[in-house]
Design goal:
single chain, about 425 residues, alpha/beta, Purple Acid Phosphatase, chain A, domain 2, 3 domains, globular
């Protein structure tokens, strides 16, 4: 029977594409090993192609089977409801209160010299590609519960360098110099995906070594790192002065306050046990993927720093990012999010295995300044109880005045009687 026809086919087609993009994003956020990504992609492409053929065949024949009808209704719901709603929510989304976010492009001259000779190097030369540009983000985050001793703490947040031969090392050295121009921060926190090739391990010390911090430098790994020489990378990070926080907690002291730092590259690497969080005045988690945000928000962590999503790398006007390897698909694409008292900052990172950056998705580094919330939250007023208390008080006052009036009247009557008795 003819089930869908005419204009219904357009939202069905749009919903079909959106559904498979969502499926790819979610499945890639479940911890697929980098060595198996190609197989997953081929499987998903095959399934998506079969679904496309099902729709095309049903449209061509004018007969929709039960399976085709069910899938058509699903696509119609995605195309007419899910996609428009999520798009509007993204367009109207604003930074949470207590957040100041500023950014400016850093001049990167002689970009041709930043291009390497490895695989995908030609992508840098595509017209409109922003892969060799850089913006510096400066953000101030007001954190509820942050002690005054940690007010003004500065963090250099770096993530997703993806050292690989398609870049020349000079590009990352220029990024390092741009970070040094900020001066010395209190902490340097790197949230994973340092390399995409074992040759990149030799770049860690010359690129990240010159960066200094007053309270220490800390790093975690990412899914791309775990597909290469992990031991060699960790050793190189340690020689550059970084402490590996994979699945571990540590603390730093600052002006009498204790700050807990934890790190995780889950679902690819070890999880971070929130029950093992040390006693502290505030806490920060380095998470390669932002998908852990709900978990750490529930645990009362003050701030989560993440990368991994690269802002989508390719952003389309109105729709925003398309591909994003996350269980939440495109929800935590970039920027700052709040859940309860916890803030999440997702950086677009610097590099990528496929060096593509289009649609305002420039590589970035960030300097984060923490501020304590000096305001006091007023308790919620229960007006019904206030009214009841006022009524009770009024009754008490009225009763007291009545009693006083009765006493005065009784006294007056006694005096009057006595005066009558005294009269001759």
């Amino acid at each position: 029977m003819t089930f869908f026809a005419g204009w219904f086919l357009i939202p069905i087609a749009v919903g079909h594409v959106a559904f498979w993009i969502w499926t790819v994003n979610v499945l890639h956020g479940l911890g697929v090993n980098e060595h198996n990504v190609s197989r997953w992609n081929m499987t998903l492409f095959s399934l998506g192609s079969l679904a496309s053929l099902l729709l095309l065949w049903s449209t061509w024949q004018g007969e929709w089977s039960v399976v085709a009808q069910a899938y058509g209704l699903l696509c119609l719901a995605v195309g007419c409801v899910a996609l428009p709603v999520t798009t509007v929510l993204r367009l109207v989304r604003q930074h949470p209160s207590g957040v100041v976010f500023e950014s400016a492009e850093w001049p990167m001259t002689d970009r041709d010299s930043y291009i390497g000779e490895g695989r995908y190097h030609w992508m840098h030369r595509l017209r409109g590609n922003e892969s060799l540009r850089l913006r510096r983000v400066e953000t101030t985050l007001t954190l509820p519960g942050l002690p005054p001793a940690l007010d003004g703490l500065t963090i250099l947040h770096l993530t997703d360098f993806h050292f690989a031969p398609c870049y020349h090392r000079r590009y990352f050295e220029a990024v390092s110099r741009a970070a040094q121009e900020w001066g010395v921060c209190d902490l340097i926190l790197f949230t994973g995906d340092m390399i995409d090739n074992d040759e990149g391990i030799a770049w860690v010390e010359p690129v990240l070594g010159p960066l200094t911090a007053r309270l220490g430098k800390f790093a975690i790994l990412g899914n791309h790192d775990l597909a290469h020489d992990v031991d060699g990378l960790v050793a190189s990070l340690e020689r550059a002065g970084y402490t590996n926080l994979e699945g571990a907690w540590t603390t730093v002291e600052h002006q009498g306050a204790t700050l807990a730092l934890g790190g995780t590259s889950t679902p690819w690497g070890p999880e971070l046990d929130t029950q093992a969080m040390p006693e502290s005045d505030a806490s920060i988690v380095l998470s390669h993927a932002p998908d852990t945000f709900p978990k750490f928000a529930s645990a009362g962590v003050n701030l989560v720093l993440a990368g991994h999503n690269h802002g989508g790398q390719i952003r389309v006007p109105i729709l925003g990012p398309i591909m994003m390897p996350s269980r939440f698909s495109r929800r935590y694409d970039r920027g700052i999010f709040r859940r309860g008292r916890t803030l999440l900052f997702v950086s677009q990172g610097v590099g990528g295995k496929h060096p593509l950056r289009f649609g305002g998705c420039m590589p970035e580094i960030a300097r984060v300044t923490l501020r304590c919330d000096v305001t006091r939250v007023q308790p919620e007023i229960d007006y019904s109880r206030v009214a009841l208390r006022s009524l009770r008080k009024a009754v008490e006052i009225s009763t007291a005045r009545s009693c006083e009036y009765s006493k005065n009247l009784s006294l007056f009557q006694k005096i009057r009687v006595q005066k009558q008795l005294v009269k001759p």
